[in-house]
Amino acid sequence: MDKHIADCRAAMAQMQPQAVAATEPSQAVAVPAQPSPANTGASAAPAEPVTAQGSLVAPASTAPALHPWQHTAKWVATGAAVVFLGLGVAEYANYSSNNHDFNKNPVCTAGSTIGYCKGLADSADTAQTWAMIGGSVAAIAAGAAVWLWLTDSSQPRATEQAGLAFSCVPALAGVSCQGRF
Q: Shortest CA distance to 166 belongs to which of 25, 3, 27?
């Protein structure tokens, strides 16, 4: 029986440097006390269990990420909304300038569709198209960003932590060891 207890203690000692012990009293693990050398005979009374505080916890490197992909996605969506809004505003300014130049020129307002006037009209149409695309994509990205900002907590999420508990106690026919993970 003493050999089994010593084996259990050795196994626990090998796992101890690789893990961090929890400090909550509710996670106590029963570990029997090692009998003194005087009580090594066959008539020795069973050893009293000693309660060890804590359990063994898996190393931090195996813990899941604190921030899931939504945390990054909210920043990407926010950036995309700003960039496409900038594109929409810049192209609207270009459209407005070309449209103003077209309407201010008496040759263009007379119905001429060649040369300089055609270039102004085409440029204004292209700028208007890009302004609408930029504004639409900015609105979609802003909606996604708002949704992601509202649903993603600024606090790291509590994650389940993998743990390992090991205990040995005297039994009728020797020692009973139990491991949990």
A: 27
